[in-house]
Amino acid sequence: MNAMPRPMYDRIDQAILDHLQRHGRTPNVELADAVRLSPSSCLRRTKALEADGVLAGYRADLDRERLGLGLTVFLSIKVEHSSTTPQVVATAMKEIPHVVACHMVSGDADFFVELAVPDLLTFERVLSDQILAIGPVRDVRSTVCIRTVVDRGPLPLDSWPGRRPR
Question: What is the greatest pairwise CA distance in the chain?
Answer without folding.
Answer: 56
